[in-house]
Amino acid sequence: MSRARVHLFDTTLRDGAQTAGVDFTLHDKIVVARLLDRLGVDYVEGGYPGANPTDTEFFAEKRTERARFTAFGMTKRAGRSADNDPGLRGVLAAEADACCFVAKTWDFHVTHALGVSLDENLRQIRETVRAAVAAGREAMIDCEHFFDGFKANPAYALACAHAAYEAGARWVVLCDTNGGTLPHEVTEIVAEAAHAVPGDHLGIHAHDDMGLAVANSLAAVLAGVRQIQGTLNGLGERCGNANLTTLIPTLKLKPDLAERFEIGVTDAGLASLTQLSRAFDELLNRPSNRYAPYVGANAFATKAGIHASAILKDPRTYEHVDPAAVGNRRRLLVSDQGGKSNLLAELARIGVEADKADPRLDALLAEVKAREAQGYSYEGAEASFALLAKRALGRVPDFFAVESFRVMVERRHNSLGERVTASEAVAKVRVDGDTLMSAAEGIGPVNALDLALRKDLGRYQPYIADLKLTDYKVRILNGGTEAVTRVLIESTDADGESWTTVGVSPNIIDASFQALVDSMVYKLLKAGAPAEGQPS
User: Fold this and answer.
1) Residues 370, 425 within the same domain
2) Smallest Cα–Cα separation from 295: which of 266, 324, 320?
3) Which CATH number characterizes residue 425's domain?
4) Which residues, at least 6 apart from 417, have a Cβ–Cβ distance to it below 8 Å?
5) Do the domain assignments include residue 382?
6) I need a labelling partner for 292 at 20 to 30 A (CA). Which of 27, 426, 433, 454 fits?
7) Between the CA atoms of 162, 167, 169 and 175, what dihedral angle is there, to the nearest 10 degrees?
8) Which residues pair with 475 in a beta bridge?
9) Helix 360-374 and helix 382-392, axial crossing angle in degrees, nearest 10
10) The CATH number of the domain where 132 resides is what?
11) Does residue 253 sit in the same domain as residue 315?
12) What range(s) does the Pyruvate carboxyltransferase domain occupy (predicted)?
């Protein structure tokens, strides 16, 4: 039996940016686009070129290799031709494979919000789609408030959808914009929409205001749509959008769905889902939802007792899928029976070979647990975890030793009488028995410490010449004046490889220092630098 292809359309970089407290930088967008591309989604919608400098610069070049890079925009304005609409032309000028335009499909919005006639709105939809197709872009229309519009005026909502399809839209996406539609209503309305637009050209865009975005998306697929729009970890305005982190494993692992539908995410991509979900939260500097389906730290956690006993005898008793399939692990909260096997799996994933009989693994596992209790998190800091593991296995040579460091922050008036804050740092390191001391000024204490630390590493200097710190995030793990701080630092080099390291301490400078040192050691190890005392 052939399976129907369901296309995944990720809107994290636009809809996700509507989340309270989320603000993507250009660097964040580039990193997230790469993560999504590797995961295997079909479309990555990057934002609205022309609406703000970040999105405009993001679309200066194509940011995906596999997924179709998609620009978002509005249908053309009334009273202007497609060639004379700056917003539309800005979207079509973007370096994108596809363009997704939002259109009004609720008659009330057309007459009251847009202030145009119903027929004029249909013309705007058609002309926008035709302009995108003529520009060589794959065109799609997001039918805003489609389900509310259908309930108010079914004929007009369907006319809008058909107008988009007739004009050449590859996808006509039915949007539950306020998240107020129930699954049975989605099923019924999608069935009606399929009379106006073939199902293999229909998509679903669900919001989670009733906690039903995933259910509504699945109901739509079962009713005939073949594109699902959603976001990583369910980000989005108000209560969020359909959570692709939940939808992807459901589509792949639930037999009734997997036998009928296929998606572009491979088994390997699925196995990276937990790590990707948590790394994404680290990038946003926000705690992961421990209770999230499939990927949460507690998704497969059980307290000791009758449930734990049953799981040990047959995991299927309380686990609806294998945790390893999504890159997660079982946790028995009193006695973690699977710790060593999970450690071995993680070592294999990052390319560290280890014999399961090696007694040093027990010490490594104990250290990882102790560090996690202190606040370390290695989900988004694989370089630090790789160093920790390799040190435990005796595979990290001594390169240099830090004898001491000092950071000074001074607020003063400059020669113009302006009040400024200056940061200075001094680092003392020992290389091949020689003590080297360097000082530097920076725009902040961490920048000054970074500059001082790698200003002079003796014979190791050439190996770190191309090392750059590209991102820095701080999270306070508990409140009060004695709060523990976790710092994540992302670095890169001329090879284009990037890696992330972590440090934890009650002192933010000390935590930053730990992450900086790990970054430098990882770079030296990566570059094949000789150990202390060995010839260059």
Assistant:
1) no
2) 324
3) 3.30.160
4) none
5) yes
6) 27
7) -40
8) 486
9) 140
10) 3.20.20.70
11) no
12) 6-271
